[in-house]
Design goal:
Layout (H helix, E strand, L loop, with lengths): L5 H5 L11 H4 L8 H4 L6 H14 L9 H8 L3 H13 L3 E4 L8 E4 L9
Antiparallel strand pairs: 1-2
Helix pairs in contact: 4-6, 5-6
Length: 118
């Protein structure tokens, strides 16, 4: 089988990538595990919150953005972010370590898919 470049592979697909280099043109990208994207346990807002936490975490294996920062980056209110973080915590997609008054929380993201019970 001949090696194909990404352009050849995508030629017959229904998704087109425009703009060339996604890393340099848009400030990078964030990979989100598929088990999060397809989960019925959490809302779309919670999935976006998880993706935003991953955006911060890829830099050094942990993240601790303030909820105000998350809300601002996501274009939403802090109350929504708090609700979505609670959803993720209840679904065991993240664990929160509270670091004290006036300090941001430390978020531990679960990147391991769990098998569904039979």
């Amino acid at each position: 089988m001949d090696a194909q470049n990404i352009g050849q592979i995508l030629r017959d697909r229904n998704i087109i990538l425009k703009g060339g280099d996604v890393i340099t043109n848009g400030g990078g990208f964030t990979q989100v595990p598929n088990f999060i994207l397809v989960s019925k346990k959490v809302s779309v807002g919670a999935k976006l919150t998880y993706a935003m936490l991953l955006k911060y975490a890829w830099q050094n294996d942990h993240c601790f953005p303030g909820q105000e920062t998350l809300a601002d980056d996501m274009g939403t209110g802090k109350r929504s972010v708090v609700r979505w973080i609670k959803e993720l915590e209840d679904a065991n997609f993240l664990k929160i370590k509270r670091r004290g008054l006036g300090k941001s929380n430390l978020y531990e993201l679960n990147l391991t898919a769990r098998k569904r019970p039979n």
